[in-house]
Amino acid sequence: MSTVATGAPLRASEIFARSQSARCEGDDRCHWCGAPCRGGAAGLRHDDPPPIPFVRSKSSARHPNGRFVCVACWLWRRRSVTVCYLPAGFRDRRFAPDHSWWITEHGAWGLRPESAEALYGLLLKPPTRFVLALREGACDNWLHLAVANDNPVVKADTPLHFTVNNIPHSYTAYELEQVARHQHAATPPGVAALIRLFGPPPPIAAVVPEQRGRGRPTVASRDPVDARETKRVISRSGG
Fold it and tell me: What's the rounded Cα separation, in Å, for the pair 112 and 120?
């Protein structure tokens, strides 16, 4: 029995579980991410060190009192897995927290510098449900600290969330598109973080302004940012 309310946005761990043809289910809560998990004799015990009396815990667990873990966190912490990379290639005997990841319900792909072009293509037209968890340097990349995007509709100005070394960031498709069209444009913080890891997005052609007849221009055309562009629908749930 799931403890998550019907229609509630999915956690990053729940999206990853679906990518592995599994489900976070049960009447208990995962020690690491708080998702539903099985307890009792069928439960998977967590590997977090037990608390030490009178010492502040350094655990990053979302539900520290939980004794068990969900299937997603268990799969993530396996010591030897095959990582399939975006857009191609794979390596065996890898550890998931040592990599950057693009995750949807349909699969999970490791990211490396040569993934840049394919990744930017996805970020410009993202699905409604995805996880982007990036790693920089030697920091472990933990699934329970990743943030999920689960939107019924993604518009050009919808804030889309990701992590770098487990720290939340955000961007919008519109911001990324503007940087790709005008490489000299001011770079928002979230897009700057992406550029730091993957380089600038491939340039795309600027949109040719619409030719208008006589008369007073519309509100959208008078604004520095065209409202029609920022409210443009990019993807819909089930679309």
Answer: 13
